[in-house]
Amino acid sequence: MKIKFILALQLLSLSLFAQTLVNKSVAIKKGQTILMKFDYPELIRVSTWDKNDISIQANVSINNGENDDAFELSINNTVNSVTVENRIADIKNLPQMITVRDGAERIVFRSKEEYKKFKAENGRSFDRVSWGVDIDVIIDIKVPKGIDTNIISTYGMVEVSDFEGPLMVEAQYGGVDVALNEKKVGELSAETNYGQIYSNLDVPFSGKGLQEKDFYTFVSAKPGSGPRYDFESKYGNVYLRKRN
Fold it and tell me: Taking a C-beta distance cutoff of 8 angstroms, is the pair 83, 75 a contact?
């Protein structure tokens, strides 16, 4: 089976180099829904609060701070919905860097020559080496409780905690990590194509609430009373945790 029930999972932690802080907020009116679309953020943390506005705080580091102004965050406010989107402007023409990782250590080089010189002088090898625009973006979002919210992420991990309200998360290449109070969940579903679903919830996924095929797993349940939560990752994992 692809579903693995666990007692604890290591939380994702990320470190940033030079950073630019971007803050935006928008008031929510009764009857509006929220749609958020993100591409390159490594981590998107989402929760709810008692205020009537969306708060967005982005920690941005592009090429070690040299191209942070390429990060754009837009908000489209209509009668029925609020849409939040980000993009990296002119990403194809931004300088390409070499990023190496050795355990927790991370080093960025401006060119292949600089990288080769460092290796020759230090006699080191690295766990991972990548070539391209070095993008480190973490976004923290707070939305009003009870508002229907949809989050679409292309590459990053979406982390959900202390969220009270209908929520749908779609992560294509990243994953979804969510902490829930089962008693306050009316309906729950999780789906992945090429990843796995991990859970330590006291929720039995069986019968019609469990579907497994080649490269596909779907689970669903009605554990308590409250809003509906739907989580999907096409290529990553979905983590369903007990909320402390």
Answer: yes
pTM confidence score: 0.86
Residue extents of the structural domains in the chain: 17-88+134-166, 97-132, 175-244
Tokens for 148, please give them: 């229907």
What is d(CA 241, CA 34) in angstroms, rounded to the nearest whole number?
24
The C-alpha atoms of residue 166 and residue 230 are separated, in whole angstroms, by 9
User: For residues 16 and 65, is the Cβ–Cβ distance under 8 A?
Assistant: no
Q: State how far the Cα of 118 lies from the Cα of 6, in Å rounded to an integer.
A: 42
Give per-residue pLDDT as tens, 54-111: 999 999 999 989 999 999 999 999 999 999 999 999 999 999 999 888 877 888 888 8
**How far is 10 from 33, CA to CA, in rounded Å?**
32
Cα gap 86→92, rounded to integer Å: 16
